[in-house]
Specification:
The complex is a heterodimer of chains A (169) and B (268). Chain A is mainly α and 169 residues long. The longest helix of chain A is centred in the C-terminal third of the chain and has 31 residues. Chain B has two domains: 50 residues; 161 residues, Rod shape-determining protein MreC, domain 2 (Thrombin, subunit H), CATH 2.40.10. Chain B contains three helices and twelve strands; from the N terminus they run H-H-H-E-E-E-E-E-E-E-E-E-E-E-E. A six-stranded antiparallel barrel of chain B has the order 1-2-5-4-3-12. Chain B has a six-stranded antiparallel β-barrel with strand order 6-7-8-11-10-9. The longest helix of chain B is centred in the first third of the chain and has 45 residues. The chains are: A mainly alpha (169), B alpha+beta (268). Chains A and B meet through helix 6 of A and strand 1 of B.
Chain lengths: 169, 268
């Protein structure tokens, strides 16, 4: 378990680097959130076994994202921690063996991630921790929809590939 | 000994004597040299025409290809230097005319996070850059504002980003009062990450496409007169209290690689 945990932390770190330094400069690919996809996929496959372990991983993912973010430190830690709690609760409510339910899980994970991001951005701006305020116009919401489609697609594909891999082994 | 054999022996002795004679007068070397020359010329001609010299030809081709690539790379590098030189000369000219201090920076990347789009510049706080400073291109057109600064880097929030807000004036391109007379003021905001718009313009202001939008100078770190763009369209919707203006940027962000950060005279 220890080696798997370290492997996942290294994977989060590498995915963060790819997302921040490579994907974020590309036109459509900038909407991909690899860390969110990874956390959601981990919840789909191991929510029954180690829920606390997944919450700790969410926290670490937020911490690593915060290290490279232009938003104030703590922003992504809070967002991913609350997202972890939500996914933990949600994974108990629905059966994550069926494909359509996984798609639904992916959509909800994305929506909740953006919901918490907007809430914490507003709070951080109000208490003057940050001077970056997300402009909630229709352009931003269209970006959220793009991101939602791409990330849900990645989560669903990861589910299909990993399920196939699990069956064959 | 038959007669024919005798003739051959005499012929051979004559040849030997002749060779000894040629050797004595060094004519043999000249002949050998001529033969070498002839052979070389002949061989070269044959080699050029045939595939006998294929290996050498291949090596030469490889060598020439390498040289060509090297020269192409050098040529491109020189073209880049020439372009950089041209741009830097323009910046020098701009800062000289306006007696302003410019920090020249290279755009080294793009960054996008939570709907914000930034350009990363290779100059930071140790070069005197601080948030809210204006960033211009070589012609003096405004590109955006500095949003974040680290020790070695700074982040430029471009005008077209929907989070960008700049205090601006609309000026007539030409009219009776003269070029540049102020029509109205307002806030320019990025639109769709592609263009800009200006809202809350009173309906009685007659704004035409082609008029210019410039910085108003109301912001502490940005002086008046930097060109933001040109008016594309003034939209007057029926029943609306204000008109909306679409602004066309005069810069193609894809081609900008070197920028100038305009140091404010009022800053620290």
């Amino acid at each position: 378990m220890g080696s798997k945990f370290i492997f996942l932390i290294i994977l989060i770190f590498i995915l963060t680097l790819i997302q921040v330094f490579f994907l974020s400069a590309l036109p459509i690919l900038k909407e991909i959130n690899l860390i969110l996809c990874l956390i959601a996929t981990l919840f789909i496959f191991s929510y029954k076994k180690r829920p606390i372990y997944l919450l700790v991983l969410s926290l670490i993912a937020g911490l690593i994202l915060d290290l490279f973010s232009l938003f104030p430190f703590g922003f992504f830690i809070l967002v991913f921690l609350l997202l972890g709690f939500f996914l933990f609760w949600l994974s108990k409510q629905i059966q994550l063996e069926k494909f359509l339910l996984v798609v639904f899980f992916g959509i909800l994970a994305n929506l909740v991630y953006y919901f918490f991001s907007i809430i914490f951005n507003q709070i951080f701006y109000l208490i003057k921790i940050s001077d970056l305020l997300i402009n909630l116009n229709y352009f931003y919401f269209s970006q959220i929809i793009q991101s939602l489609i791409i990330n849900t697609l990645i989560i669903s594909l990861s589910f299909l590939i990993l399920r196939q891999f699990k069956i064959s082994h | 000994m038959s007669k024919s054999n005798l003739k051959i022996i005499i012929f051979l002795i004559a040849v030997f004597i002749l060779l000894i004679f040629f050797h004595l007068i060094n004519l043999d070397q000249k002949i050998i040299y001529e033969f070498y020359q002839l052979g070389f010329r002949f061989g070269s001609k044959i080699g050029n025409l045939s595939v006998f010299n294929f290996k050498n030809y291949q090596q030469e081709n490889l060598f020439l290809n390498q040289q060509l690539k090297k020269l192409l790379a050098e040529n491109i590098q020189l073209k880049i230097f020439a372009e950089e030189n041209r741009v830097l000369k323009k910046y020098l000219n701009f800062s000289g005319k306006n007696k302003e201090r410019l920090v020249i920076a290279n755009i080294i990347g793009k960054r996008s996070e939570m709907g914000f789009n930034w350009f990363i510049l290779d100059q930071g706080s140790q070069d005197g850059i601080r948030p809210s400073l204006a960033v211009i291109d070589e012609n003096g057109f405004l590109l955006g504002k500095i949003s974040r600064v680290t020790e070695n880097f700074s982040y430029l929030l471009p005008l077209f980003d929907s989070h960008s807000l700049i205090a601006a004036d609309i000026v007539k391109s030409t009219d009776d009062k003269g070029v540049g007379s102020r029509l109205t003021s307002g806030l320019v905001q990025g639109k769709h990450g592609l263009s800009m718009e200006m809202n809350y313009i009173p309906l009685d202001k007659s704004i035409e496409s082609g008029d210019f939008v410039i910085t108003s100078g109301l912001e502490s770190e940005i002086r008046r007169g930097l060109i933001i763009g040109q008016i594309e369209e003034a939209i007057k919707e029926p029943g609306a209290l204000f008109q909306k203006i679409t602004i066309k940027p005069l810069i193609n962000f894809d081609t900008v690689r070197i920028v100038g950060v305009l140091m404010s005279p009022y800053g620290q």
